[in-house]
Amino acid sequence: MAVKQYIEAIRDALDEEMGADPRVLVMGEDVQEGGVFRATEGLLGKYGPGRVLDTPLAESSIVGVAIGAAFNGMRPVAEIQFADFIHPAMNQIISEAARIRYRSNGAFGCPIVVRAPFGGGIHGGLHHSQSLEALFFHVPGLKIVVPSTPADAKGLLRAAIRDDDPVLYFEHKRAYRLLKDEVPEGDYTVPIGRAQVRREGDDVTVFTYGLMVHETLEAARRLSEEDGIEACVVDLRSLSPLDRDAVLEGARRTGKVLIVHEDNLTGGVGAEVAAIIAQDAFESLDGPIMRLAAPDVPAFPYAAPLEDFCLPNAEKIGDAIRRLAAY
Amino acid sequence: MPLVGESVTEGTVIRWLKAEGDRIARDEPLVEVETEKVDVEIPSPWAGVLQRIVAREGDTVPVGEPLAYIEAEVQVGAQGPAPLQEAAVEEARAPKPARPAAAVPAEQPARAPVGGSAGRYSPAVLSLAREHGIDLSQVKGTGIEGRITRKDVLAFVAARGAAPAAPPSPAAPGAEMGARPGEVLRLTPTRRTIAERMSRSAQTVPHAWMAIEADVTPLARWRQQIKDDFRQREGADLTFLVFAINAVVGALKEYPIFNSSWSDDGIVLKSEINIGVAVATDEGLIVPVIHGADGLSIAALAKKLSDLGERARARKLTIQDVQGGTFTIDNTGAFGSIMSVPIINYPQAAILTLEAVVPRPVAVDDAIAVRHLANLCISFDHRILDGAQVGAFMASVKAKMEVFGPDTPLY
Are B198 and B153 in a shared domain? Predict the structure, then answer.
């Protein structure tokens, strides 16, 4: 196994899938020169401009053209340069891509992947920090994945590319070079729709995804050492479809549930997880289901202290777990 | 090291443009740094003197870590000379000191009700209580304001497994003897548990009873000779109880139906022989279990018994020590009893007592001799066992007890 950065794992997945399947295309702003984060570096040289396409600054077209290419037998991986800019493409994603299989009665799929860097903590301000998954979470016909490790980044991207239906792949921009970890060799995928228990524990269960997985694990480590509280940490990693079994099992195990995400609180993925647990694991609850998320502000501030105030971190997560454990 | 790009997490110093001791102006370029994305010149945030360079050329520095120390001309507070300040201290990821809890809605969980007695219980607590037949008023709550938590209930269930359904032995000395006539003796959790289990056993299981008398003269004499030496060598007592356990285990192997439980779907024969042994403690009777007693030699049984007895009296038994029993033996003889009618340790099939070993005059052939006699009494679940079976079982136990002697292997 090699140690790779999160972004290297993504680049490797693109490279290997393009190498294995000539139908796989990459398209987006500046992807030919490697992309603003260098996620697509080297692909133009290997596969040529016929398969690595620079697009105009027009997100609706990026996704729309990808959908068209998919209709014609290709497997496009469209890149939205920052998830914050995905809004012009909403119509294509929701009205078109998400509905194609449904409205064609199964005759057509739409095997596109839409990759978008998301997340804050890098002073990105208004347009470079948002989490958008909740908006699409609500839409049937879309799959959404949020890998939290380099190994999952590669495995989930492969799975997304090979999927015959549209997949939104949200990669955390701060994770790109921050996370370095072992990535297995060989042709492996991570199944879409399956959560992963990252840490075992019997006191409180924490459901989370994205970079918050690492903040939560750090909080859990401190709590174990300092307070003797053992948290079970579950990385959802697929938001749509959600791994309901893992959610219910995690909730039943401890009866005390905390959901952590970087996205705003109201109407976030955590609300749905809480509702599922309240409905189907009610008898096992030993305390109220708690959520820790960003406050409902239009975007993360640029000023460091304010951004820190908004973002959940290991300390806030630790406090929340501690309070719930004591309940 | 400042954050120069959104995904940049570290930088490598290429070269310093100023040297230690140099005067520097605000925004004057200090150092060239190479990052993944781009090479940058880092300007000085303050005017002053470059005091000490921390990151040398070629060093890789994570964002937020110091590159150099500058003695700045900016006054902070009323101090005369400006304090040392870290150059380019921005960054995100250095662990922050305690922050006030964010407006982020991690609200306090709703106030928990006070204590267990009149309080509301969580669904988990109610389910567990129902499943294990627990009266929640007996459970101590360790949650906020004395709330009973799921873990409290689970701990109660585990501790309850320790309670015995033992014969009506005289009350163990201790707290329960402390009250004076005219006062009400408060019920301890152990007492409640004993009460609950005794009642359940007596009400559910049709008890029948039998006793036999064993002539343990050879054992008594042999034991008298070797017990001190054994005690010295092994640090444990070679009591009559040890031999009784060994004899019963042997009989259980011959008659497995005595190592079972009644259920409406069938008599469940247990695969292990785990002997519960009643021990008197200050809190009341407790029944630690010797797991796999059939695999233990007499000496090993003696040591295990000694260990469990000590730990029971010291209240140091673990959950495993009191769970999983399949048959129970009580040494009522230790109190001088010569007959007992024990209550079965639900849901086992039977319970056996070893009564006092007493020298008595008995008829041997046509003469009177003094022999050491011990009664063994058994209460059994008449749904599972009939008199004839019990007779055979007890005859086997008696035979084994009567044959212990110098030829018996201890190890």
Answer: no
| Residue (of A130, A154, A38) closest to B35 by Cα position | A38
Q: What pTM was estimated for this model as a whole?
A: 0.59
Predicted ipTM of the assembly: 0.74
CA nearest B110 in A: which residue?
A: A288
- Give the range of the structural domain holding residue B156, as residue numbers without chain letter: 123-160
The tens-digit pLDDT sequence of chain B (411 residues) is 988 877 778 889 999 999 999 999 999 999 999 887 778 899 998 899 999 999 999 999 988 899 999 998 865 554 444 434 443 333 334 444 434 434 344 455 554 444 444 567 899 999 888 888 888 888 888 888 888 999 999 888 888 765 544 444 444 444 445 567 888 887 777 787 788 889 989 998 999 999 999 999 999 999 999 999 999 999 999 999 999 999 999 999 999 999 999 988 889 999 899 999 998 887 788 899 999 999 999 999 999 999 999 888 887 887 778 888 999 999 999 989 999 999 999 889 999 999 999 999 999 889 999 999 999 999 999 999 999 999 999 999 999 999 999 999 999
Choose one of B107, B141, B160: the last residue of a domain.
Answer: B160
> What's phi and psi for B360, nearest 5 deg?
-140, 155
In this structure, are B292 and B379 located in the same domain? yes
Exposure letters A257-274 (e unless 16+ CB within 10 A, then b): bbbbbbbbbeebbbbbbb
Domain containing A32 equals 2-183
Task: Provide the CATH number for the domain around residue B149.
Answer: 4.10.320.10
Between CA A265 and CA A68 the distance in angstroms is 35
A122–B143 CB contact, under 8 Å = no
- Chain A CB contacts of B7 under 8 Å are 7, 37, 122, 173-174, 176-177
